[in-house]
Amino acid sequence: MTGPPAGAPYWDPAELPAQPPLHGVVTADVAVVGAGLAGLACAYHLAERAPGLDIAVVDAQRPAAGASGRGTGLLGPRAGPAIDRAVRRHGPRTAHRMHLASIRAVDEVLALSRRLDVACGLRTGEQIMATRSPAGLVALARQARAFRLLGLDVPVLTGADIRERVGVPYRAGIVHRPAATLDPAALTCALARACAAKGVRFYGDSPLLAVRPGDLVGPELVFPHGRLYAGQAVLAVNSAARTAGLPVGTVLPLEVYAVATAPLSGPAYETLGGSAGYAVVDAVPLAPYFRLLPDGGVVAGGGTAVVPAGLGPARLQRLRERAWARLERWLRSLHPELARIRVTHRWSGRIGMTADDLPVVGPVHGHPEVWYIGGCCGHGLALSVAHGAHVAGALLGEPDPGERLPWHRSRAPRLPVSGPVRPLLRAYVDTLGRTARHAC
Predict the structure, then answer these.
(1) Which of 190, 329, 397, 410 lies 20 to 30 A from 164 at CA?
(2) 211 in a domain, yes or no?
(3) What per-residue confidence (pLDDT) applies to 283?
(4) Dist CA 277 CA 182 (whole Å)
């Protein structure tokens, strides 16, 4: 059976401001490269707090074209590694602060969505982390114990508790609040329109090629058909940092996959928790997850990740087809009606991963007045908005309201990602995917 056309996400980008390519020599007080949630949140807060500041946003394609418009719209608290590993690595106090920061990030996205009147697809509810495998039970037990010792309100769910919510035979789980599901492209596009309304200029189809010291003050940003001189710059380019030669450590691009279905019947939709807005994420890393859509359909993601570097177009497309087929098989196993439902959308997106699961949000070494944001490791829907606001405050010289968090740093650990090591890295990611699929 031939599947639906591949590539177009379920989310339909809304009307956007004009974005001519950057040609010739352009100047700005602040240049923001990357029109995803992090870059646009930064531009929005700069324009909000410093009216009259000349801000230019440049993107390799257009707003919402990257990960910010191609995600699955799960908004929940998570920052860095799982909470038990965060305690071991950073200590209880810092792990506690990290989790509270991720909760604030969720609240900020919800507040921003209300401020921008992004009601389309926004539903608050619980995010359930559940499992059907022994490995997942071990992971959940460790996390539940860490949350309890830190005094954080993350309740444990029995299998019966989960079945009452979503009607799928998971064995146990924990539940995160606050949480929500939303249309990520709608939020990204609303941010772009809000920035344009505040006088921010937009340039599209202009990938960043290089960053150089400027002749007088600030950086020179090089694009295919022009240059931009700015007093300050924010590079919210995620894993594209390597292409531009930025010394921010290794932010590895991973391609991940999603599918969406036609609407279910009313009873099946209710059985899977549709009216309550639940989302279910498996406790095993890279394992599949699902959420319900307001129109009655289901979105599923995860299950497979691919290191796309060095793969030709034909081989990459074969891997995509295989990943979508696996994801569809898993989705159809959740409920009898899903065995017959039509899959309407199949798409992929790229996320930035770091070796220690922590983002990078800080000034770039060797480039005064340049900041970088990237490497949210698949948890960028909430964190990206928070990171953009943080960097905007730093550029404006506002006092830091709290202690530094572990991701407030200038670089991630370096990984060998090219040459003879690349097949080993690809094999490691493939093994993680196989383990996750077997656990489900």
Answers:
(1) 329
(2) yes
(3) 87
(4) 10
- The band of 4, judged by pLDDT with boundaries at 50, 70 and 90, is low
241 in Cβ contact with 224 (< 8 Å)? no
The whole-chain average pLDDT of the chain stands at 91
Residue 16 lies in a domain: no
Distance CA 241, CA 413 (A): 14
pLDDT single digits (tens) 272-305? 988 888 999 988 878 899 999 989 999 999 988 9
- In the chain, the number of structural domains is 1
| 3-state secondary structure at position 58 | strand
Q: Which residues of 144-163 are buried (b: 16+ CB within 10 A; e: fewer)?
A: bebbeebebebebbebebbe
Extract the tokens encoding 286: 């890279």
> Rg (Cα) of the chain, in Å, rounded?
21
Residue 426 lies in domain: 24-439
Which DSSP category does 87 fall into? H
Which pLDDT score, from 0 to 100, does residue 425 have?
67
Is residue 8 domain-resident? no
User: Would residue 13 count as lying in a domain?
Assistant: no
The owner of tokens 């001189």 is 229
20-25 own/partner pairs: CB under 8 Å, 24+ apart = 20/203, 20/204, 21/203, 21/204, 21/205, 21/206, 21/225, 22/58, 22/203, 22/206, 22/223, 22/225, 22/226, 22/228, 23/225, 23/226, 24/225, 24/226, 24/227, 25/226, 25/227, 25/228, 25/229
pLDDT confidence of residue 105 = 96
Tens-place pLDDT, residues 45-59: 999 999 999 999 999
Q: What CATH code is carried by the domain that includes residue 352? A: 3.50.50.60
Rounded Cα distance, 353 and 238, in Å: 9
Distance CA 91, CA 127 (A): 25
